[in-house]
Amino acid sequence: MTDQDPRPRRTFAVISHPDAGKSTLTEALALHAHALTQAGAVHGKAGRKATVSDWMDMEKARGISITSAALQFEHADHVINLVDTPGHSDFSEDTYRVLTAVDSALMLIDAAKGLEPQTLKLFRVCAQRGLPVITVINKWDRPGLDPFALLDEIEKEIGLRPTPLTWPVGIAGDFHGVLDRRDGHFVKYTRTAGGATRAPVEHVDAARAAEIAGADWEEAVEADELLSADGADHDQASYLGGKTTPVLFASALLNFGVDQILELLVDIAPAPHATRAQDGTERAVDDDFSAFVFKVQSGMDSAHRDRLAYARVCSGVFERGMVVTHAASGKPFATKYAQAVFGRERVAVERAYPGDVIGLVNASALRVGDTIYDGEPVAFPPIESFSPEHFATASVADTGRWKQFRRGIEQLDEEGVVQVLRSDLRGDQSPVLAAVGPMQFEVVAARLEAEFRAPVRLERLGFELARQVRPDQADLVGSQRGVEVLARRDGTLLALFPDKWRLRQVQRDHPDLELGALPAGG
Ligand code: G4P
Prior knowledge:
This protein is an alpha+beta fold. It has an 8-stranded mixed β-sheet with strand order 2-3-4-1-5-6-12-7, sandwiched between helices. Strands 19-18-24-15-16-23-20-21 form an 8-stranded antiparallel β-sheet. Helix 1 (22-32) crosses helix 8 (258-268) and helix 9 packs across helix 10. Residues 16, 18-24, 44-45, 48, 87, 138-139, 141-142, 251-253 line the site of guanosine-5',3'-tetraphosphate (G4P).
């Protein structure tokens, strides 16, 4: 490999239930570290200072972040790539795809709420993907749950053993700092107004801590001993193996603990490693260039109606302008317009290294899951589609916009915003949209109207689950009462069932039918 960037990479995503503080933490991380690709605001809710990822009106109105991109910054001579995940409560395929592009995850938990539904789903997806997780208990500046109760909940509900690296000195809401369990020091925080600047941190030895924090310090010391006696100490191999999760206590809003999060990422989070190809071989990071597309998005900016394919670099060095091969078609692909993207901010990327995310502009040939490479050919496994659980028909509201409607549906299908299912019976007039979370329908409707000026009528269908069927069994399955068989863009046939009872009954009546389960959305 030529010209290796000497700085190691950490590529991670922050995941959480909405409102746990993901946007606040992202801003705080960028503030602490030196942001490489953008200055100023990161992103956040409507009404905050300039939000850069609010490209869609719907997103602005609802104060949620639907786009995802990567924020790159530098810390302690490392380059850190924070890949943004959708911030809404709807578990969508997008979240899963982002998690295919990172090496580890940071799970944010609201100290007062503990584990929430989205937290559980995301933890499960991380486990499926073998992603090591660091847990951050956030909002410790406010009254919250007992720290031991929070740890118990994580262990019981998720099956991950929590190994706290810090322990709060003072209860939630009356927070003086943390005991750093690795060196036994008191990390004392001083509040700054609104967390607008870096919070001054003081490292105080144990003797002095006892003087300053008195009983609160003694309690933290006791907790530390208890944890050690219980074996709840950090172990790097167990963390990387997805058996334990290191835990930190923080307040993203007041900038408490943000330094420790950055330090921890650098110290223990995994660096990019070899990527397994579809044929079972491994592409080492220092092999020839390769990357895979984990997200395709268009209409990001009304001024530039372009289409961006986000790719994670797996191996080698990417140099803007290089001509790579698109594994799916075998055709050359020119990368003249590679960019680093975060929300609306874009800068041309000249070079990128394993772990980095590049945005390829006007990459109409690239689909989610596609591989591009240079040199030795490689193809990474496709990114699985999740099993849809929500179904609706879409039809154009104004028949004069039929062509635009069709084009729009086609594009959103290719981008993976929603799965579009078709059958001869239904024809092209009103295809069936299949989604993992219902918010995907709203995105489809909003984008068809905004980008294609083709308002749609959506009608929910009474199906709840989908199973893959063999082509030779499709007619039989389709003739069952309440069941419908439709085809996905890739030709896969899906049978839709109103509920699991009907599915079981069909299986009982026809034991020879092969009804394949699709990966579950959590
Ligand atoms: P999200 O992206 O995970 O959805 O959460 P976000 O950062 O938007 O935070 C949700 C709310 O929680 C925000 O309040 C935010 O200020 C608050 N918050 C985040 N971290 C902390 C923390 O460490 N301590 C405390 N006390 N609050 C925190 P909001 O009122 O909804 O929004 P805003 O008006 O403050 O922007």
